[in-house]
Amino acid sequence: MDNKQKLILVTGATGLQGGAVARALLKKGNYKVRILARNVNSVSVQTLIRDGAEAVEGNFDDVTSLENAMQGVDAVFSMTNPDTTGKGTEQKQGNALIQSALKKGVKQFVHTSVARAGTHADFPGWESGYWQKSYWIGKWEVEENIRTAGFSSWTILKPAFMMDNFAQPKSTFMFPHLQQGELKTAMLAETNLDLIAADDIAAFASAAFDDPEKFNKENIELASESLTMKEVAEILASVTGESISSVSLSPKEAEEQGIFPSLVRAQEWNNKVGYTVNINSLKPYNIKLTSFNEWAKKYKNDIKVNRV
pLDDT > 90: what percent of the chain? Predict the structure, then answer.
């Protein structure tokens, strides 16, 4: 099919990954882009509409709205919300999206999950429930459902930790002390964190839409760089011109200083497990990856330090 006629539905377009994908596709100019949104009047949705996107109101819990959004769609960029309840909410969302796409004849499905999904049963302490089983099981089961659904082409992108979490608005929650010039975490000084930019996820998704056959049945773990928190702090300080230090806390200290328990647990997971992405394995795709320094320079104005 002529790419100029190809209609792509992007879910999660008001978030980091979906938004980056929608912008990348619109910038290419050779796709029609439709976005699924709960509120088509939101600022972020209206911005994408001005850039050329079509917006359809709907959500994963409303099958009718999903089928409406899938009308005439050739390909889907999919992302589902993590299950934090243990009730299988992510699987339900994923299944609703998959079945709606199949019913409406969608040929290609590109989904974003997370690195290490599928290896979760091997995490130390897995059976104890320490690593939030519902999160990992939800991610993996959605992936498996896509692989077996019967799409002409499917691709699973599995990103590591998002660089964009160090910028507003995410950083307020993820790193609440950053605005005061401190990068406090429960990560050990020697722990490396695998990082990827939302723009790079978008680049891989865009490449998959350009060449469905090449990317068909590909499971691609994504990271461009692996850094300690000290190295992250040094780069942020260099780019912003502000003084930023990294502080390694015990899990108890981290919670006492206001870091959410779920984040503390994720930081402990990085100490003991980590994403361990084989960055060299991405070279054959010939897609330029963004270093953390490059990302920080590009989004310097969104990295708020000592400007409260």
Answer: 94
